[in-house]
Write a structure and sequence with these properties.
elongated; alpha+beta; 8 strands; 6-stranded mixed β-sheet; 5 helices; Nuclear Transport Factor 2, Chain: A; two-stranded antiparallel sheet
């Protein structure tokens, strides 16, 4: 607080002087307002740099499984080759084979089947089938299958009666690439009497250049037995008289003995 000087003449004068005496305390700071600057019209806005975030890859730590005898196997994660963005995947190409035709051997097989039919007629079914059967060939009919090979022919035709005739009638065949099948009809006769008839289907393959039967199926039916005429009954004429001479005559054998 300011103090008036001692030489003041009156209270009024001292009061007015005291009012004009400045405060001798510390000076107050003067706050200056910065002057506003005007930006030029062609001033460029400041460029904000993008914030780059670094991604730190995490490491895969493989755990080790303890084994017996305190031996811990080492484990190494397999390396996977990731395809790059420049890798071009191509679809696998398919190879299509066209215009491939196997040699048609149907006529050749028909001729072989006709040869078998001729051998049956000339030498009988046992010898004919033994010649044309494969070592693995099997014959089938309503009674089932037979053993393989030559035993198959023997099992089927060993007891075939000589009075019975088997007639094989080939019709068609289809074959290619050394394999095929033939089919037709068969008939069994006793003399001129038809006993049975049916169909057959044979599967063939070429073994060392020769056609052989791998399997054959035959199925048919027996013909009904012929109906014989009834035996005529013996009749004796009525009123006929017995001849005493014939009735008294005794029959004798080659040694002259009487036959009763």
């Amino acid at each position: 607080m300011a103090v008036a000087p001692l030489f003041c003449a009156s209270i009024t004068f001292c009061t007015s002087v005291a009012a004009q005496v400045p405060d001798w305390g510390p000076a107050k700071p003067v706050v200056k307002t910065p002057a506003q600057t005007t930006k030029p019209a062609n001033a460029k806005a400041p460029v904000t740099k993008p914030t780059v975030t670094k991604v730190v890859p995490t490491k895969v730590v493989a755990t080790k499984t303890p084994t017996k005898n305190n031996i811990t196997p080492t484990f190494k994660a397999p390396e996977v080759n990731q395809p790059s963005s420049q890798t071009v995947f191509k679809a696998p190409t398919k190879t299509v084979v066209t215009n491939v035709t196997a040699e048609d051997q149907s006529q050749e097989l028909v001729a072989v089947d006709l040869h078998l039919a001729s051998d049956i007629s000339d030498y009988g079914p046992l010898a004919a089938y033994a010649k044309h059967l494969s070592k693995a060939g099997v014959l089938y009919d309503a009674d089932g299958g037979t053993p393989e090979g030559v035993s198959s022919a023997e099992a089927r035709f060993k007891d075939f009666p000589t009075a019975i005739t088997l007639v094989r009638v080939p019709e068609k065949a289809m074959a290619s690439a050394n394999g095929g099948s033939s089919w037709g009809a068969y008939k069994i006769y006793r003399g001129t009497q038809l006993l049975s008839s049916g169909r057959y289907l044979a599967v063939w393959r070429k073994e060392q250049g020769v056609w052989k039967i791998v399997s054959e199926l035959a199925a048919g039916k027996d013909m009904p037995a012929p109906v014989l005429p009834a035996k005529p009954s013996s009749a004796q004429a009525t009123g006929a008289k017995e001849n005493p001479a014939l009735s008294a005559k005794k029959l004798k054998d080659a040694f002259g003995r009487t036959v009763n």
